[in-house]
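Let's sit down with a protein and look at its sequence and fold side by side. Which protein we use is up to you, so please pick one and set it down. Label the sequence line and the structure token line clearly, so we can match residues to local backbone shapes. Go ahead whenever you are ready, and we will take it from there:

***
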Amino acid sequence: FNRSIAHSSTKIGNLTRIFVRIIFDINYHENLFQVVSFLEGTSYLLLLFVAVPVKYWMNDPQYVKLLGMPHGLLFVSYIVLAFLLKSELNWSIKKLGVVLIAQSFPSERST
């Protein structure tokens, strides 16, 4: 019984350390921001150039419903991550503004 409690607390300690490292790791936030920005931009283009035309030309709102929620979640994630990185990387207000405006375009990972 004591071994299982000790083993469980070790697992919880390891998970806590991993969680804290992820939250405070700037490289993780930058990589996550790149992935989210690409997905958000792609979802925006799919919504704009596929779902909306299908909705109005074919009277089928299914694609807007299908793509709308993921796009909204990605958009909010992008905004939250942008503000998080602004404080971590000491971005100016101008740079944050450019980053927030650029959310409309899918980006390729820079090397």
User: Anything to note?
Assistant: The helical segments are 2-24, 26-57, 62-89, 93-101.
